[in-house]
Specification:
about 65% helix, about 5% strand, 2 domains, disordered C terminus, alpha+beta, single chain
Length: about 425
Amino acid sequence: MNHEIQLISDGDGLAVIGNATDVESFLVSEGLPSKDLGVQRLKSVVGTGAVVAQAGSEIAAGSGRWVKLTRESAQLVEKYGLRESSKTGLSTGVVKGHKGQVRGFVEFVKGPRSLLTNPAVLAGAAGIMAQIAMQQTMDEITDYLATINEKVDDVLRAQKDSVLARVIGVGFVVEEAMTIREKRGRVDEITWSKVQAAPATIAETQAYALRQLDALAEKMERKTKIGDLATTAREAESRVREWLAVLARCFQLQDAIAVLELDRVLDASPEELNGHRLGLKAARQDRLEHISRSTERLVARMNAAAGTANAKVLLHPAKSPAVVQSSNHVATGVHDFHGRLGIESGRRSSEARRWADAAAEARDKALETGAKGVDAARSLGNETLDRAGSVKGKLSSGIAERARRLRGDGHGEERAEEG
């Protein structure tokens, strides 16, 4: 490859392909963590002919790494002037180096290259990149479920709905298929037949969990008395965590199915791989938007409840802080959930500061009412002020704005800048 690094971006990740030494030097120079791309798998989609034979030899001699596109790594797409194809949706380019030296990776080469001009290779690379990105999200969800200490199967078994019971079995089948894929390196017809019915069950379970979150949001909206708000908010705090865990598991299984599906298409109809990849990507984004709308609606209702509690903090110095605390916990939990699924987060919550200010103001006023007020102030100051002031959750206002645009309310405005 003559010290050339070939770059491919699908909007979610960046493939860096070239000589192993050059690839490593490039990634080190840019300070980017990466994963093995498994570039040898591309040999199966090269085909025949002189040009593809050259591509095949380059693949055999080359190395590939995958970089998750974050704000920092995404700048490489602009830095090296990658060009997007309207047909594939991929951005590609070649960076030329000199003798593997880090400082040499500065020249963008505009000429054609066998790998980047071979549609089959590009489709194969994009399919592999999509699989790696989804598997990373699956790992993030595994960590998330362990962090919140929610055993999804226990949550599901506690429900009487038969759909929720079936998704446990679906999980076993999908995991078995993923194990076979890992051992064999492909998904044959027999393996695929085992999981073909799984998407319907997973989708039903996801819909059920979203309805539960919507029901909690509506229940919060109906409560006006502080006592009722405190009880409902406390109930919502634990229930939301459980249903977010179920949603996370559903999303994890859906990504696993997509990984298997791409392998099956690659094996059976490689010429359809790119179109299928784009279809899966669009469907996945639709699921994310649906989930973000539902969870944002819940956070908005919880925030409204906290606002009501703040307004009545002097009259209810014990119950008002409880509502605020539960609302904080829900907002923090939703933000963490969004991050694990790869949903873009918005600005840091300003509500926490307002709640802290309200608590401080109430404390000062309570001090003027005498000994009874002092006791209330101490409870409010020690328990509520610290908790409200230290909340680390970020409300994803950026997602809410994006959801409004999708519904047609935004009239195409640009996304609000993050604070």
